[in-house]
Amino acid sequence: MSGCNEEGATLLNKRAQHLADIIKKQKKIHIVTHIDADGITSGSIAYEALQREGKDVSIEFVKSLDDKVIERLTEEKHALVWFTDLGSSISTSTPQLNKIITDHHECPPNSDLGFHLNPHLFNLDGSFEISGAGATYLVARELNPKHNKDLSALAIIGACGDLQDRTHCKLVGYNKEILNDAIQAGVAKAKTDIRYFGRESRPISKLLQYSNDPILPGLTTRESACTAFLCELDIPLKDNESNWRRWIDLDKTERRTIISNLLTLLLNKGFNSQIALRMIGEVYELSAEEVGTELHDAKEFATLLNSTARYGEYEVGLNICLGDRGEWLKRGRTLLRGHRANLVEGLQYAKDCGIQKQDFLQYFHAKDGIRDTIVGIVTNMLLNSDSADCSLPILGFAYTDEDTVKVSARSTQILVDRGLDLSAAMQVAAAHFDGVGGGHNIAAGATIPKGKEEEFVEFVEHIIKEQLQN
User: Fold this and answer.
1) Do 299 and 159 contact (CB within 8 A), yes or no?
2) Which DSSP letter does residue 243 get?
3) Is the C or the N end of the chain the one with fewer CB within 10 Å?
4) How far is CA 35 from CA 64, 172, 408, in A?
């Protein structure tokens, strides 16, 4: 397989086949999945695949697998529980549950069990080689290779929502194989273009205003400067009918002009060519969706999904993934507008809170000012803004409804390459304070008791120091 650990991929496929065999023996299956875009697409893939097999299927969305959730699932006595985009953390500790797991987060020791499909078990990296949706898709494909390859489109959306294209500015590893399935099935296309969010739906000036990875000095966060920049290049902001022009409305010459001048800007500001060229990469379009809508671009589709389950509107994202383009999509677009406003307000709130800097990390505490379900997104946005120090990992804290504190940790690939592992840091530190944590080396999270935040910061600081100095 191109760009993929062939031995690991082969073992992953065998595990997927084994899980498909387990599913075929059951009539009734309950899906438990996460609330982010990767979780929604994972759950949707599993749900649709099981429906096509004529199974009696139910689904629920959870923030995390805490003791209360596990206790309830045990009491409900499901014939089979399918955990998607989560579950690795409880793979070795819940023998009372008859389960299968398709996840991509880092695993505890001794979790290479027959019911557990996770890339980390087979020397594949779940932070960029395959997402939770991708892992779930492998099982769906084994259930019915002839009819389920169209579900690969949802796996691409999940991967983009999980930022799996961030490291290499494109999907690689097993994600690439899933992309090939999507292209062959006629449900997705890949093209090289500008990577900034909003190619399909944002006015050009807004695309530049909210740019990150890399940020554009003098333009990012400055609407009037972005407008002036485009005017100086003689790029019309509106068409003949006074509609705001989007990136997809520009011709090739206009796009080349903007990209060339942005690259010159970055290089003149001291950015090296490797960072500057991160502006360009692969983007993924969904062939069945209308051009110029939030559904045509995989990243924008993922953001639409994030605006649903993260606000408790689980059925909206699920039904959009299952193909509804009527009332559910209308409801989703309403939620998306609110989500965008919340992210803008949340980012400003985080900046107003002030970023506290330590020797090896930085952090902010939003308390009740940012929803715990979106503090991770805000934390990532803050790290990619000019308000944070990108040479340090960042922690974002927010209160939850359960009288606990959500911690979101984000970093850069440069620090990961130096030895940083936020998943290990969150897992160890959370356990020390009777909480739970985990995730990926570059992005992880935890839930801890209120009042332990300062001690938690010091504990994580010590772990990160050791990781980076080893």
Assistant:
1) no
2) P
3) C
4) 9, 24, 15
